Amino acid sequence: MTENIEFYEELLNEFDKQPKIVLESTYLELCRYPSSRFEEICSRLLCFYFDPTNEHNFQNLFIDSLLQIIAPNNKILYKNDQIQVINELNSEGKRLDILIKSPDMVIGIENKINASVYNPLEIYSNQIALYGKKNVFKLILTVRSITNKYERDFIYKNNFLIVTYTDLFNQIKQNIGDYIFQGNQKYLLFMYDFIKTIENMTGETYENNKLSHFFSSNAEKIDNLIALYTKYNERVLKVQQNRISELIKLIKFQTNDDRWWIWEGWDLGYDAFNNGSEKKRIGIEASYEILNNNPLSRFKIYITTWKIKDFAPYEDRLTELFPNNYLDKTTDGRVYLHMEVIEDDDQTLIIEKLDYYYCLLSKIVNETES
To answer: Residue 274 burial (CB < 10 Å; 0-12/13-18/19+)?
Structure first.
């Protein structure tokens, strides 16, 4: 057993060393468009940023970054106002996602987010050839790495190149320093959100995340640790529930009031000061807190309301009586006035304090209502 404890201590120590990076949802992820629709949205975003004359003010950042990947040894000259970007070019009834053209260049792009490459690439090639440009580039821009031999053979047979989003965005990140001050900051945020959304889809973030690698490498150990911890918490809760079931009998007898209740087995409470009415509902709640492996180490008592507005009639009187007690108004609308904490399961003191707050609140409520 000692060896097992040392084993899990070592696992937890290793966990403490990992950088705690948690992926946050991007705006595009929150929109949750269907996958087919999302591909169209990505194509429109690309068209917007590929056009150097658009209001993003990043000029030729996207086009030059792409050319550095597909034509690293060619210097293709163009003027920004000569670039035309077409979304969903009609090709014999089929639609090529993106076409970029200038006097000396044409780039046809079939955008692939999740789907396999099954498109009529030959038809696209014929349509692109009609522009009669000196520099012709035909691309499959893809989120995933295309490893299927049939797909790759089909793509290369039609003289298309494969470019991944990862390669494109990495190149953009390398170049953006030359554009960032002139760029529109609003569209910079949109650009980074777009990039982050795609990166979250590629798995690159997970592969390069040390914390993810730790979880992946220690999955079985972590599952075992969680299972043991769950059983431990169940045992702790059982001890607390048993003691609460004893306390409710004692406090009902002490106050001569059977309207005390237990919630979820561990929360002892009373809220019948207004005869159980939801109007200005105020009450007492109390429960145990584990400390130093003792499930009954601390007994915490609160005067509480279930709505913030219900506490208002009693707030001045209670804060006058208990000026140093912490008053917690939570974001979910609850109010908790923290009373003293009773240590070491002193049942006599627990019943004495519960009875005192019961009598006090009964008096305050009656005075307020009268």
So the answer is: middle
- pLDDT tens digits for range 29-85: 666 565 558 888 899 999 999 999 999 999 999 999 999 999 988 888 889 999 999
CA distance 26 to 303: 41
Residue type, 209: N
What tokens appear for 140 in the block?
């499959």
- Could you say which architecture CATH assigns to the domain 223-369? 2-Layer Sandwich (3.30)
What residue ranges in the chain does DSSP mark as E strands? 84-91, 94-102, 105-112, 135-142, 161-164, 261-263, 267-270, 282-291, 294-305, 327-329, 335-343
Per DSSP, 278 falls in state S
Domain boundaries, the chain: 22-208, 223-369
6: its two tokens: 């040392």
- What's the confidence (pLDDT) of residue 1? 43
| Amino acid code (one letter) for 75 | K
| Gap between the Cα atoms of 355 and 361, Å rounded | 10
pLDDT tens-place string over residues 94-123: 889 999 999 999 999 999 987 788 888 999
Q: In DSSP terms, which residues pair with 96 in a beta bridge?
A: 89
Q: Which residues contact 369 (CB under 8 A, 6 or more apart)?
A: 274
CB contact at 8 A, 282 and 310: yes
Residues 162-217 have pLDDT tens digits of 999 999 999 999 999 988 888 898 889 899 998 888 888 776 554 446 767 777 78
Helices 165-175 and 185-202 pack at an angle, to 10 degrees, of 150
Q: For residues 14-18, give the mean pLDDT.
A: 73
Give the closest residue to 99 by CA, choosing from 141, 151, 39.
Answer: 141
Phi–psi pair at 96, nearest 5 degrees: -80, 130
Among 275, 267, 351, 273, CA closest to 305: 273
Query: Cα 280 to the chain's mean position, in Å?
Result: 37
The answer to whether the beta carbons of residues 342 and 296 sit under 8 Å apart is no
What are 259-311's pLDDT values in tens digits?
Answer: 999 999 999 999 999 765 556 899 999 999 999 999 999 999 999 999 999 99
Q: What are 247's two structure tokens?
A: 């306390």
Beta bridge partners, 343, equal: 298
